[in-house]
Amino acid sequence: MKQSVTVNQPAEAKWLKVIRAFFTKVNIKKPAFNLSSLLKKVGIPLVSIAIFIGIWHLGAEALKQREINYRIEKTLTDQGESAAAALKACFASNESTCQTNTLPSPSQVWSSILTLIADHYVIKQDKEAFAEKTAAVNAKREAAGKDPIVYTGRPSFVDIVITSLKTVFAGFLLAFFIAVPIGIVIGLSDKLRNAFNWFIQIFKPVSPVVWYLLVFMIVKTLLIGTSTDNSFVISFISVGLCAMWATLVNTAVGVSTVDKDYINVAKVLKLGPLQKVFKVILPSSLPLIFTGLRITLSVAWMVLIAIELLAQSPGLGLFVWEEFQNGANDSNSKIIVAMFVIGIIGFLLDRFMLTIQNMVSFNKSEGI
Questions:
Q1: Which of 190, 214, 256, 272 has its CA 20 to 30 A from that of 338?
Q2: How far is CA 110 from CA 8, 289, 337, in A?
Q3: Of 37-46, 98-107, 244-253, 284-293, highest mean pLDDT
Q4: CB burial class (10 A; 0-12, 13-18, 19+) of residue 256?
Q5: Distance between alpha carbon 3 and the CA centroid of its chain, in Å?
């Protein structure tokens, strides 16, 4: 007769059995690893980025060599062989005095990114030192009812980006509070829609430069003699007025095209005018309204650059223009950095609006 032998299993083995039994009971399956899906979502974008950087590098080098050849030939013609040979040697040594003024390479742009980050921390330290130095004086000034002494040094690139974001969000909110209510009122009435159609069609295609000039005429008079930052006020009002038209039109279209069955249900339930708007019309119009808001935010971010330049507001628009006028060795690289930052922030703003749209709307969208 065989005797059964009892083996004391380690505690870890017992816990593994318990965990395995739990997963089997609740039918939790390990997600299958899909290599093709991973390559499609991650691999292809990475390859396209690498190709883009490669083409950019080759194009920048070709443009750089073209400018070098032209300047050497011109020097040879104007000053002779010795001067041309010296210039050629200078270009070969890559000295700061012999730099081309053309499209920068990816490595130059990366160096400018590191420079801007380092400058940000230097300026941040200067601000902290200034705040400590003027803390006692500002406390006395505030106690006496006077304005505190503020830091007036140059802003860092991060400060510039934050200023642009403040301006665009202020303009977007202005566009929202103007366009949505007017769009709802116009959408509810065919007569009002026909009456104001000419106004929309005339002012919708007006250039941001013209909007800036119009706002400048009005705001500078209204704020005359005050200490308000005119450049910020003029910038965000111009941005809001220039970008609000997509929201206005989409809101009016969304409200006017609500399914008549919904309106009839509201009549049967004897809903009041405001109840009908907030419980029936607006929920049905949300997809079109948010489409308009997404376009408005994108347009606001695009026109912001030109308006900041004109208003001399310390944002990305003024930064790009000053770097273009500066003509330093790394100015072109910093302009490209600003271009990428503008594009990335614009993409993130669009994803932000799309996320909110999916949260409040029945119709889910993945965007483009």
A1: 214
A2: 62, 40, 8
A3: 244-253
A4: middle
A5: 77
pLDDT tens readout for residues 115-141 = 999 999 999 898 888 888 888 888 888
Per the CB < 8 A criterion, the answer to whether 68 and 100 are in contact is yes
Domain range summary for the chain, segments of one domain joined by +: 37-94, 155-360
Hey, what amino acid is at 248? L
User: What is the C-alpha radius of gyration for the chain, rounded to an integer number of angstroms?
Assistant: 31
The amino acid present at 201, given as its one-letter code, is Q
pTM over 0.90: no
Measured distance CA(140)–CA(162) in Å, rounded: 30
Instruction: Return the C-alpha torsion angle 43, 49, 51, 57, nearest 10.
Output: -150
CA angle 35, 41, 45 (to 5 degrees): 120
Please give the class, per CATH, of domain 155-360.
Answer: mainly alpha
Note the pLDDT tens digit of each residue in 198-242.
888 899 888 888 999 999 888 888 877 666 668 888 899 999 999
Instruction: For residue 100, give the 3-state DSSP assignment.
Output: coil
